[in-house]
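Model the whole thing, not chain by chain.
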Amino acid sequence: MSIAKPYESASGASNWRMRKFIADFGVYIALAVLLLAATVLTPKLFEVNTIAVVMRQASQLGIVAIGQTMILLVAGLDLSIGGIFLMTSIVVADVTNGRDEMVLPAILIALALGALIGAGNGVLVTKRRVPPFVATLGMLVLVKGATQAYTKGVPGGFVPDVLGIVNQSWFVLSIPLLLWLGLNAFFIFVLRRTSYGRKVYAVGSNIEAARLSGISVDVIRISVYILGSCLAVASGVVLTGYVGYVDRFIGTGLELDSIAAAIVGGTAFVGGRGGLLGTIAGVLIIQLLSTMALLMGLDIEVQFIIKGLVILGAVTLYSLAETES
Amino acid sequence: MSEFILEMHNISKSFAGVQALKDVSIRCRPGQVYGLVGENGAGKSTLMKILAGAYKADSGEIIYKGQLREQATAGEIIESGISIIYQELALVPEMSVAENIFLGREPRRALGVLNLKELHQRAAALLKRLGITPNTRMPISELTVAQRQLVEIAKALSQDADLIVMDEPSAILAGNELDQLFQIIESLVEQGVAIIYISHRLEEVFRIADEVTVLKDGELVDTRPIEQLDRAMLVEMMVGRPLDEIFPQTQHEQGELVLVAEDISTDTILTSASLELYAGEILGIAGMVGSGRTELARALFGADPLTGGRIRLVGVDGATWSNPAQAIQSGLVLVPEDRKAHGLFTALSVRINVTIPILRRLTRFGIVRGAEEEAVVERARERLSIVMASADQETQYLSGGNQQKVVLAKWLETDPTVVILDEPTRGVDVGAKFEIYKLMRQLNDRGIAIVMISSELPEVIGMSDRILVMNDGRIVGEVGQDEATEAGIIALATMSNSEANGQ
């Protein structure tokens, strides 16, 4: 056909490639700028010990953010993470009661309960068509209530010593960091190279088209919620080991931080766009901001204000990039 | 003041290096209809978006009502008397007809309290001007697409528009609805309104336009009075070559029976529809918008659950399906009417779009095999001559025709026995249309049965071996290719109580 040129003009091609590059890697530029600022503001950040601590804390947030990112990719949202952390912490303390050999059974039980919570979120969202915000918020309240009813307000049991291993660092490496990196590698591969990953993006991009393409959209969405909850359990185990006792407020705020990390990393709130590479940078930015604020001796209120500004700024930039097209 | 209400001089616009418009000039007199035609990507929409203030031209000037227009907001432009009715209607479904017409400009009493009485009175008066008397309190969601379009026109009138741009208004209309639209256009013209009418359907342009402007690849080909043109000339101007045969014909015998639907109904308007489909044929489905054609397609594909009747594939034991996944397994595919809403993953790459339904074939242990995927995408690109920068390009950056080809490519990879096409050439330019027709014939030659729904009667008649006509959710008649005429089909499609359609 006369109108069918094999490829569009080179400038047109570089245009969308450029946009794609900015969408994919713009957050890394922001991260670099932040690190540059840190060399002046908080040079202490670059000491090995500080890096180790930052990476360990980033890992806790990062593991949750993997699940949150995938849930956002299917146009969902998970606010129930705080409840899962509390549940995990209590299960670990209760089942092991300080016995190291019971750690594995405890983790398995917590994972099973987490999967159940995720399935509950997923079923509410898909089969009952409850908006994710409402469904997972309800689940948060439900799970927190249930754990408190179980413990009668006074958590018993002890966290086994073996979990203290999460606090050890070898140079900057630590168990949480290795876990975070490993899970990222695995899920990046899943999202990019497997049919499951393709379906996750398809469902988030256009759910009706996905359904008409023969994808079991509900199965995909429920499975992603289950994955998200299980990842929250994993992070909860790490955090429990870090804290060393059952804290009633454990993990509070991580649901919002994980959403913020994903969004700052370029994952779209409406689904179908973004990914884990961006989230890694988002997590590091959020964590660095907290640590830098701490090192500079800023008040907690100021920390929140800075964090809020960064999130709003990132979202504004992404929406500008969108409208530019 | 000059005789022109609008003059756009030497408008140029490029997007990051891609020239979308180059030195385009148009002029409009009051009380005239201007046809604006061209293939997709020719620059029609860009030009109109510049007029609407959605884009800023790189160079050129707009003189409106004798004055050079400075940069203005979309609101100020509407205020100045320019109204644009987009193809995707911009109405709030939950609000009433009257509320939509006066959205943001509601008549008020003191302290900003709405004057509901005046609101409905004025809305009714406007609709009367259009020759219709609907209930102004009815929510938009209750109206047919055609009725919604009339509400859009009423909205334009309420803004005292002197210039109305209609972007493919007929794409969603059929038969008598179209007549009604033309009557309205004629009465608007008599009232001195200038109309820019964008359409892919050349018949309509010949029917109502006084002057036609043709754009191609962002450049002005020519503007001519309609009397100096005929259809072939216009097509040649648009495509840049003569279009020999529009509907490619092949000779073939009727194949074997492949699919039988008996008395199928769904929770929609579709009632007790029965049909038989034979290998290698094209079964056309005609009817007005809202007559249940799309619902029939969705029912056949399992997209809407059946509430009655049954569908089966002949010769395949136990081949039944109750959802799209099973339908695809059984060898059916559906290319939906609303490409962007139901067919395409616009934020995802061509690669992912094309391979989504055949991931099972392309994966081992759930992992996508890159080389084979690459081969599939490359084959699709060649077979359908999809114009793309790379397989990783997001489909939102492709033209309408190329998007449709991506959707078609995706389904052809599943090796179907039955292909259901719902408005396959809607919003597609003449060149791509021809390619889609050719492709349909190739599928026929491979023994694939096609169900084609279309609002364009020439297309239905030109392509179909048999035509089923739908009316009010039922199949009301079958017409063979030899006996099919536009008048005959329209008569069947508008029989009985469907006169209420246009209200």
